[in-house]
Design brief:
Blueprint (H helix, E strand, L loop, with lengths): L1 E5 L3 H12 L3 E5 L7 H7 L3 E4 L1 H6 L4 E4 L6 H7 L8 E4 L5 H4 L1 H7 L5 H8 L4 E5 L5 H6 L9 E6 L2 H13 L3 E6 L20 H9 L5
Parallel strand pairs: 1-2, 1-4, 2-3, 4-5, 5-6, 7-8
Antiparallel strand pairs: 6-7
Helix pairs in contact: 1-2
């Protein structure tokens, strides 16, 4: 797959390196792509660095959002013509201390953070993943054959569900489908599975405790 990384920090950088190692074509992006030279070198032949604009215009199959939550409005508005019908993986988190009033409103709204992203990227197919795991675990626990950590994810439709599940498995993690985006509040900061690094069985048990029948 051709993957555009929007935000090449700890989460985006580690995921991009893993996906490049797994054989995917990865485009790291930044307002200053020349600063990503070391990241590209560490990632190998399947990676390159571009501006955010060039990354969106490169017609990737999938875009990973790993930017501060407060950047969602501007990015979705600027590049609306480029991400239509693409899969968007939302790895963002609303932190009021960093993202301000926008994050406060989302965290107190009757929709959750991933639904907000999906509303802003309305022409894309949105999934939520990689926002609950610590960056160091994402870096150090990839490509394992045993004791695989599980990555929870939610998805808007069948295509985004299949793509995200494949991308999780491609880098040596287990996947756990949480449900639709409306079910993903338990993945948000301060919620039940946020910040938890668990094996699939343990993670599923924790998720199941939140469900009412």
């Amino acid at each position: 797959m051709k993957i555009g990384i929007i935000g090449s920090g700890n989460i985006g950088g580690n995921l991009g390196k893993h996906w490049a190692k797994a054989g995917h074509s990865v485009m790291f992006s930044s307002r200053h792509p020349e600063e990503l030279k070391n990241l590209v070198e560490e990632s190998g032949k399947n990676a390159e660095a571009l501006s955010v604009k060039d990354t969106f215009e490169a017609n990737a199959d999938v875009y990973l959002l790993a930017v501060p939550f407060k950047a969602i409005d501007k990015i979705s508005e600027l590049y609306a013509g480029e991400y239509a019908n693409k899969v968007i993986i939302d790895a963002t988190n609303p932190y009021p201390g960093r993202d301000g009033e926008m994050a406060l409103k989302v965290r107190s709204a009757n929709h959750n953070a991933s639904e907000y992203t999906a509303m802003k990227f309305a022409t894309a197919k949105t999934a939520k993943a990689f926002n609950t795991i610590h960056a160091e675990h994402l870096q150090d626990r990839a490509f394992r054959n045993v004791d695989k950590l599980a990555i929870p994810y939610a998805a808007q439709d069948k295509e985004s569900k299949a793509v995200v599940e494949q991308l999780i498995k491609d880098i040596g993690f287990d996947s756990l489908y949480i449900g639709n985006l409306s079910d993903s509040r338990i993945m948000d900061p301060d919620q039940v599975i946020y910040g938890k690094s668990l094996l699939r069985k343990e993670l599923k048990e924790l998720v199941d405790t939140t469900k009412t029948y």
